[in-house]
Design goal:
Blueprint (H helix, E strand, L loop, with lengths): L2 H15 L2 E2 H8 L3 H13 L3 E4 L2 E4 H4 L7 H4 L4 H13 L6 E4 L3 H10 L5 E5 L2 H7 L5 E5 L3 E3 L4 E3 L1 H8 L5 E4 L3 E3 L3 E4 L5 H8 L5 E4 L11 E4 L6 E4 L5 H8 L4 E4 L1
Parallel strand pairs: 4-5, 4-9, 5-6, 9-12, 12-14, 14-15
Antiparallel strand pairs: 1-3, 2-3, 7-8, 10-11, 11-13
Helix pairs in contact: 2-3, 6-7, 7-8, 9-10
Length: 255
């Protein structure tokens, strides 16, 4: 079966049986899992399907997929998150003031920052506060607000009011979706204004995200992708996606 014919058949399977898994498709079409991954990446770039970890779903189903709670995500892509965390932590200098957003990748970054000295960390994430409480070299500033239980983060008017008067050297955040066209996206409308306020407190915005976030378009557009100064990710992001982002003037670092 030629590639074009195989991809048309894959599209039919995804539309009929979404979600589908790489190993199932490889067995069905008698090709390697690597070949199926390339097919899915090409179909994703054409906007016909949405790649997810281990497989694909229809574009319609993407908007039904809400982000799982933070504790459920903690075990996903652990190695990728750890490598990203080490790289981002190396970009933070002792003596700086940074904002660290909520999420599992930023929590991994907090763990890597625990031995820094004379570092000020502002955060609205309870998980990060708990992580950095024992770190003697870090001054913690916790922003209050309404508790978002799924994320264990503090959001809303009180958080945004505090952010208005703050400036930091670097903002480090995760993001649910990263796409050259649709930008930085998330799943929670209540979090939107808080996230946008966070992006305004520094000229240096570092987005830390593993490969599963790329090409994913969540329901809420937080900002254009050009709001990011740097994006730190792993090497599983497709070359076409990396090239498209770099052409927009964004420094994307793969580890």
């Amino acid at each position: 079966m030629l590639k074009g014919e195989r991809q048309r058949e894959i599209l039919k399977v995804v539309e009929t049986h979404s979600p589908v898994h790489v190993n199932e498709l490889a067995e069905r079409f008698g090709v390697s899992e690597m070949t199926i991954r390339r097919d899915l990446e090409e179909l994703d770039l054409k906007g016909m399907i949405q790649r997810i970890h281990g497989g694909a779903v229809t574009r319609i189903e993407v908007h039904k997929r809400n982000e799982p709670p933070v504790f459920e995500r903690a075990n996903e892509q652990q190695e990728e998150k750890r490598q990203i965390a080490r790289k981002v932590a190396s970009m933070v200098q002792d003596g700086e003031k940074i904002f660290l957003g909520s999420g599992t990748t930023t929590l991994a970054i907090a763990e890597e920052l625990a031995h820094h000295q004379n570092l000020t960390v502002l955060t609205n994430a309870i998980t990060i506060v708990n992580c950095l409480v024992p770190a003697p070299g870090i001054t913690l500033i916790v922003l209050g607000g309404f508790l978002r239980r799924m994320e264990l983060s503090l959001i809303g008017h009180f958080t945004e009011s505090a952010l208005e008067n703050l400036r930091v050297d670097k903002v480090i955040i995760g993001m649910r979706g990263i796409d050259p066209v649709h930008g930085l996206t998330s799943d929670n409308m209540q979090e939107l204004f808080t996230d946008q306020a966070i992006l305004r407190i520094s000229k240096t915005i570092i987005v830390a995200a593993d490969y599963t976030k790329f090409g994913h378009v969540a329901a809420i557009r937080t900002a254009p992708i050009t709001a990011a100064t740097k994006i730190v990710t792993d090497r599983k992001v497709s070359l076409d996606m990396v090239t498209a982002i770099r052409r927009m003037g964004i420094d994307i670092i793969q580890v």
